[in-house]
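User: Hey, my collaborator sent me this sequence without any context and asked if I could get a structure. I don't really work with proteins. Can you help?
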Amino acid sequence: MKRPLIIFLAASVLLFASGSVCPAGDGPGFGFHKMYLNKTEISLYVNGAIGQDKHGHGRFPHKPYQTISFALEAVPLVRKSADIRVTINVAAGTYNENFYIRLDNIIIQGDEQDATIIMGNGADDAVEIFNAKRIRLIGLKITNGYNGISTSFASLVCERVSLIDNQNNGLSANNNSYVRLDNVIASSNANNAGVSVNRASTVRIFGGDFSGNRRGLYGSRNSIADILAYNITNRPIFENNSEEGLFANTGTVIRLEDAYVGNSGREGVRATRASIIRMYGGNLISENCEPWQNCDGGIRIQDNSYLSSDGDDKISNNKKAGVSLLVDSTARFHRNTSVTNNVDYGIFCDDDEIRIGRLPGTLSGNNSGGDQTNCIP
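Assistant: No problem. I've predicted the 3D structure and written it out in structure-token form, which is a compact way to encode the shape of the chain:
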């Protein structure tokens, strides 16, 4: 007589452990989170058109959550540790929300960068990442945030992400953050920068377009920006920014290779307050510095800052000097570097105490001021 009762109790335990029996409630994850506890990778699904933010949803594409925010709330319920990666798959559509990431090891995967759109409220950062590591954003367009993305004490990789028409910066990386941008578009962030990197943070840029902002990239307070191309056909572009294309301030290092910086309202590249610009070849700095702007040409190095060109960089056709060295700054050029056809000096030094480690291999065709003045080779 006891055996049926034992069988019934054992079956009940197995059903509950598998997630087939769940507690009542509408919180994220109820109904299936127990069956995920021993997995190493978990997928959740969001679709604003057909989803619902309630229990029993989020596990399958045909039964998704409605918002990204709700899916993020579900993450602690569907995994037992941050070692388990959670991918939130977001269907095409427009999501009118700002969301926060405070957990490690999260991927948010959109359909494509012009199809899955995060529309912020204009007052807050559209995506805020704080004290979170191993975050990836893929195939998204992020717009109408105060900043499109902001990070603090975080590590982030963005792939095929558009950061467009945000109120301040497209990306703001702060406080020892590390961010990698692969084929990212950060444009039309007119009040500040496509990318801003501050407070000992590092940004690495591979390809992409950073045009039509106030500044293409702004770095400050001992930060690092590496700007690289996979190949010359995929060079990073900094064009048509209303002020500087690249601006290094207060101990910042900008390193660039195979980049194009052109048609900036002010200097294409500027460094001030003990900052460093290192060019490793393949860079073109051209057509910068509109005549009505208070600017100095293609590249402006000032206040104990340093410029080095270590390859076949071209600094040409800028609307004032090619390179201006001001206030205790210095430079060194590779023999394959060319500084040509700039409207004013090729290289201008503001006094006869500024030294150049080596002049460019080609320094010619510069117009009203001549090829160089006051500089000590």
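In plain terms: Confidence is low (pLDDT under 50) at residues 5-25, 29-35. You can pass these tokens on to your collaborator as they are.
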